[in-house]
Design goal:
It is a single chain. By secondary structure, the protein is mostly helical. The chain has one domain: Orthogonal Bundle (Tetracycline Repressor, domain 2).
Length: about 200
């Protein structure tokens, strides 16, 4: 029952907003009593906290899935964007923006995890791209990782609409790739850009 509550609540939070969904709404939607929810979660914050952890795990499962497909480094980044678009396309408002605005402590905790995981992934992608001759061998990997995640997280936490965030992220990916790509990498980037629509 606990997992069902987390799943339903998280779906509702992401679609309707963390602030606007009440415990009553969740109970009503699930045809259970509010008491049942409080049996597992002492308050709404606890439910949001566990829900964001589930979303975090889901995102990383998707990332691992894409990496396992063994695309070249640049194609991999574009595939990841495509997967995220599919995951979040039904939302009007950026979940990260809402969480930061209404539940800053939960947001901070989530971001600490995300920064660590995303840095690892961005770093692996850059090393992979260097070995494939798509990124320049002299790239300052740590600086490139830091620049890129700062851009991506800043877009997500400061952009209210999911659609706008998605478009800005696409531009950030192009900007990041052009900054470290070799001539061969630029060719691959142009190929990817011609295939994907913002």
């Amino acid at each position: 029952m606990k997992d069902k509550i987390i799943k339903k609540a998280t779906d509702m939070f992401l679609k309707l907003g963390f602030k606007s969904v009440t415990m009553d709404d969740i109970a009503c939607e699930m045809c259970i009593s509010k008491k049942t929810i409080y049996k597992y979660f002492s308050n709404k914050e606890k439910l949001i906290e566990e829900g964001t952890e589930v979303v975090h795990q889901k995102i990383h499962a998707v990332m691992d899935e894409v990496v396992a497909q063994n695309h070249n480094a640049i194609a991999e980044n574009f595939e990841l964007r495509k997967m995220f678009k599919e995951m979040f396309q039904s939302f009007d408002h950026s979940p990260a923006y809402q969480l930061k605005k209404h539940y800053p402590e939960i947001y901070e905790k989530m971001m600490a995890n995300e920064v660590e995981d995303c840095s690892t992934m961005f770093r692996q992608n850059i090393f992979k791209g260097i070995s494939e001759g798509l990124y320049r061998a002299e790239t300052d990997v740590e600086a490139a990782v830091k620049f890129y995640y700062t851009l991506i997280f800043s877009i997500n936490e400061n952009t209210m609409l999911e659609k706008d965030a998605y478009e800005l992220e696409a531009k950030a990916l192009e900007y990041h790739t052009r900054a470290i790509a070799t001539a061969k990498g630029i060719e691959e980037l142009e190929k990817q850009l011609s295939k994907y629509t913002y």
